Amino acid sequence: MSSLPNSLKNISLFLERLPGIGEKTANRLAFFLLNLPEEDLKEFAENVSDLKLKTKLCKNCFNFTEKEICEICDNSERDQSIICVVETVLDLLSFEQGRIYNGVYHVLHGKIDPLNRVGPDDIKINELINRIKLSHSAKASLGTKITEVILATNPDMEGEATAVYISNKLRIKNSELRISRLAYGLPMGANLEYADYMTLKKAIEGRNKF
User: Fold this and answer.
1) Is CATH 1.10.8.420 the classification given to domain 6-54?
2) Using CA atoms, how far apart are residues 18 and 29, in angstroms rounded to an integer?
3) N or C, which end of the chain has less CB nearby within 10 Å?
4) Can you tell me the distance from the alpha carbon of 50 to that of 166, in angstroms, rounded to the nearest whole number?
């Protein structure tokens, strides 16, 4: 590293700060950028420069967008009455890549995590409650009334705590709202021998008619 020019060294050191990138990978990526055609490198630099300037949060669901409303919320073919609540935009992309869901989303941008000092007010829970409240108000005729909320937070301790908190809040505000949780169980190709107790328990509880 010490024998590299400062410009190349600085790029490598920055890339090393990215998740999952070690020193050797950072060096390879830095050399890859160095060997790019000038036009491609300029295009890459412009896109990086515009990343913070152009990217904003959708005012409805808090997905990333370059407009006021994201493409999903603005799509009249999506079922606007169903909201899938996810922790991150990456979780949203997982649903979209599989094309398995045709409703809209609400991105929390985190989960309740007391150990890391993340409380309900630090993520987009109040915004979710207000969004649902507005759809059930006198102004509901101007838009679609939300009838179901799917809690799609991750099945870990913090994700469960977040789902329970949201569920309790929503039931207090609106008893008619349908609240559902993603099913747990065994992944395709799994072997029962290696499944843990809680996975088997959830699989039994969530069994379907065959």
Assistant:
1) yes
2) 12
3) C
4) 35
